[in-house]
Amino acid sequence: MPIQIDRRAEHDDIVYPATVPFLLVHLACFAAIWTGVTVEAVILGVGLYWLRMFGIGAGYHRYFSHRAFSSSRPVQLALAVLAQSSAQRSVLWWAAKHRHHHLHSDTEQDVHSPVRCGFLYSHVGWIFARRHDDTDLSKIADFARFPELTWLHRFELVPAVLLAVLCFLVAGWSGLVIGFFWSTVAVYHATFCINSLAHVRGKKRFVTGDESRNNWVLAIMTMGEGWHNNHHAYQSSARQGFRWWEIDPTYYILLGLSRLGVVWDLKTPPAQVLRNEQRLGTKVVYRAAEQLAARFNVERIAAATAAALHGPDLAALRASFASAQHRAADLLASLDLPHVPDRDELLAEARAMFAKTPSLDTIVDRAYAILLASVASRLVNAT
């Protein structure tokens, strides 16, 4: 069944004046008409794109959001400055929102789910919403204790402004426009595509209870962040390309830095995860079961069942449900009604819907219970 979302409710708190600086950064790119495009500026822009993309993947994401590796305090600060030079808010704000995303991925509480609130809002609109402006420091308390990071949190644009000045000093006005603004806009949208497209386009290798997908095009654009389904399957891994052919430059650089002693304790997925043999957690099983149960039209099943039963039979069934609500699903299953899907039908749907997982039977059992309970509830409450 499709998810019904009131898009107006999702968008009515957008702080439109807050979009002005964001739009100005985009408009500044057109200044190249007057500044021209120099070779030095292009080289600067391309270099800064890849450097800051590494800062986002290694800094914002794998280190501050997931603690996928360890480093010294100076390196931690350097990663924070590099990440914030991309002008995507502070590392504390970014990581707190991302941790919240993983707790509620593609549910109503997710801050940027394209499944729930559409592509545009998940891509960029959510950033300007009032309810997402504040930082829940309790979600990022492990890093909020560092005064240098809280200073960067208060003055989050300082690294980006300093980088813009440096670009101007290195390559003049063209260096500012091409080197800084063009690369900043490119980094913006490559990063935002992980929030939006990586939950819509691609393949699922793992059952994660959400719509995260692996997308090789996004992986190339983001230095490995596009292996998003892999990441949701094992979030604390410094390596997101689980197969040899899944290019993950951010991990390769981290691996090189670890051999130099700059970073250490790089976490990688265990062999059980790589073989897709891990048992799924309760939360993932429940979310996957809800997804499976939602593939069946509960209203239609309940209506067909009610129509097939004669008046006294339906009344007796409702009375049985009402007197034993906690066993309503069991009672419904025992009746073997033709309009109610059986477990084998759910199992067939699950095999077509989900990737291979040893938890498939558990998902099906849970989905079957959810489906029967929903049908029973509608039969009891039908007028």
Would you kindly provide a written description of the structure presented here, covering whatever features stand out?
The chain is an all-alpha fold. The chain contains 21 helices and two strands. The chain has helices at 7-11, 19-28, 32-35, 39-65, 73-84, 91-103, 114-117, 119-123, 141-144, 147-154, 158-196, 216-221, 228-233, 249-259, 271-274, 282-293, 298-308, 311-323, 328-335, 343-353, 360-381; strands spanning 70-71, 263-264. A two-stranded antiparallel sheet has the order 1-2. The protein starts with 6 loop residues before the first helix and ends with a helix. One of its GO terms (cellular component) is membrane. This is Acyl-CoA desaturase. The chain crosses the membrane at residues 14-35, 41-60, 155-174. Residues 45-254 form the Fatty acid desaturase domain.
Alpha carbon gap, first and last residue = 23 Å
> Spans of 5+ residues with little confidence (pLDDT < 50)?
1-8
- As for the number of domains, it is 2
Rounded to an integer in angstroms, the radius of gyration calculated over CA atoms is: 25 Å
Largest sheet data: 2 strands, antiparallel
Rough outline: elongated
Order of helices and strands: HHHHEHHHHHHHHHHEHHHHHHH
Q: What's the number of extended β-strand segments? A: 2
Approximate helicity band? 55-70%
The helix/strand class is mainly alpha
**How do the strands line up in the largest sheet?**
1-2
Strand proportion: under 5%
Number of helices: 21
Mean pLDDT: 88
Protein name: Acyl-CoA desaturase
Main location: membrane
Pfam family, one: FA_desaturase
Keywords: Fatty acid biosynthesis, Fatty acid metabolism, Iron, Lipid biosynthesis, Lipid metabolism, Membrane, Oxidoreductase, Transmembrane, Transmembrane helix
